[in-house]
Every structure is written in structure tokens, then in C-alpha cells.
Design goal:
Layout: H1 11-14, H2 17-20, H3 23-32, H4 37-44, H5 48-58, H6 65-73
Helix pairs in contact: 4-5
Length: 74
């Protein structure tokens, strides 16, 4: 689509996403519930990259590769 930037939420969904997905909610979903960025993005109707940007904005550290592998095995 012309004018659409890759990795950004759809224009119709970008307004309000940051307000809807609070730091507490993102921390709950990503850190405590161990949900993936893609799962969270799908739930909130935005891209995985945008959820990653919010993690950085909110100071939520990424999981390590070892944590990801142990999640897949367990």
C-alpha cells in the first residue's frame, strides 16, 4: 500500500493502541504470562514490531534466546 510504513500499526488502529496497552498490561502479558510479541500484537490489532517498540518505551526487557527455547520445550 502506498504510504504505509512496514512494522507500524494500521493507520486505523494506531490511535489509542498506546493508551489501550498500558505498561502494566504489557508487563503482565509479556513478562508474567510469557506471551509472545506476535500473540500480543494479534490481540491488540497492531504489528509485532510496534509491541517491541512499546516494550522499549516502557523499559520492559526482551526475553533471552535461552528463555524462548525453554518456553518452547516446557
Amino acid at each position: 500500500m502506498p504510504g504505509r510504513r512496514i512494522g507500524r500499526p494500521n493507520r486505523g488502529n494506531s490511535r489509542g493502541i498506546k493508551e489501550t496497552l498500558t505498561p502494566e498490561q504489557l508487563r503482565q502479558l509479556y513478562v508474567q504470562e510469557q506471551r509472545s510479541l506476535a500473540e500480543i500484537a494479534k490481540q491488540f490489532g497492531c504489528s509485532r514490531q510496534y509491541v517491541l517498540t512499546l516494550c522499549r518505551t516502557y523499559g520492559i526487557p526482551r526475553r533471552s534466546r535461552a528463555q524462548l527455547l525453554s518456553r518452547e520445550q516446557g
